[in-house]
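#onboarding

Welcome to the new folks! Below is a worked example of what a typical request in this channel looks like: someone posts a single protein sequence, and someone else replies with the predicted structure as tokens. Don't worry about understanding the tokens yet, we'll cover that in week two.

Example request:
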Amino acid sequence: MKTPRFITVITGLCLVLSGTSHAAESLNKIKVAHWGHEKILIYAPLYIAMDGGFFEKEGLDIELVYSGNDDQVFATVLSGAASFGIGDPAFTAISREKGGEGKVVAALVGRVANWAVAKDPAIQPFTDPKKLNGLRVTSFPSPSTTFTILSGLKRDLNLSKMVIKQLAFGTEQAALERGEADLAIMLEPQASVAESQGFRVVWSLAEYYGDFALTGVTAIDSFIKNERDTVQRFVNALQNALTFIGKSPEAAAGMLGKSFPTLSAAIVQSATKRMVEDKTIPRTAVINKKAWLKTLNIRKTMGDLKSMEIADACLDSSFAEKAVFDPKPLHHDSPTAEPPTAAPPTAAPPTAEPDFPDSSLGWSTLGFWADVSSLVGLLSAAFSLAIVAKTLLEHRKGHVAWNKLSEFEQNCGRIIANCFANSVDRVEKDKILRALTDNHRIEQSAANDVLAKYLKIGLIEEIGKTGTCKPLVTPFAKLVPLFQLFR
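Example response:
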């Protein structure tokens, strides 16, 4: 009996709806402790990962838990009320030093995302923070990162006439308008909003400090141990969002309109452009070691942290590094056909005996050339053995050097190896650096550090002062491509 068409359609719709419901239910619901009490644009990668579907593709459903100041964010994570924290990562070190848990697994904001805004036309743009002396400068309340940084500047530069005014987030511009402050330290989009209303951005803390682990993704040790797959998927989503922003900042700004519906498109575009140009939005979720130490050092000088010995224990870059680097082999070409199986060797036909005249001269001449041939053969064999020995020694040296590298540096090495592919023996340093930073893999400073390390330990060497490099493995040793032995 033929099924009526309307029953078939209804059945199909039910299946689709039930499948959608099942897919939604299959998402792993994750709570994330969020700094402040509302969304802030400097966390753009988080919102892009949410609104762009990057978390969903990783099977995660994100719920934001607004938790207040930086210390309260990590307290929320410690209490188990949230799986991840988005805030100052230094509190993982502060917690661990007191006997608690805590690790930072990814970067979200890679520089100090603060900009100084002024109303008074007499205050001109500057780059030297000594210009802060004699000014009243707003700050988020202690122990916020902003307050810690400004307090450190005041002490280190002896800015005795600088006044730090601790104000609630969102009240900075009003303080300028009332004449209660000379400079307001703002985040985005607040800085771009103020700029659209006639105020001026006169100083970028991002440019002054350079790479700085301002905001990270934090979690407790037990969660990382028990939910490694969840941590990896969370970091994967963030990395995909960072890559998307780096490649398409305008498209990213358009997507951010969903998280900031009350802001004009022009404001969001301006803010996103500033953050990309000042590199507060990092290229990767990998926390630069120097940036991490810089963050902790400020906390140490302020007395929040007793020593720097805890630095390595509370930084786990393995998830971010895995998210950045493709774990597949160097070459991703389609599989090639299996090489034809060689036919079994056939017996050589018997060689006829040479027909020499029956004279001692003939046989003695043959013996002489046989001796010469044997000598040449021996020399050739010795030369081949010498090449093999040299190759083995070089590969051994390569193994030793390779094992001294961190996982991050080894991942970079696989990208460097591609530069020497296709029998290329010499490559310009600039090309290697471009390969490392291409597709927003890592920051330029990190690429410089990696290349310097490879030159230092001898895996590659510079040819004179030409700016050209060659690999450790010589042309004779190209039976095995560079670094392939070390994988």
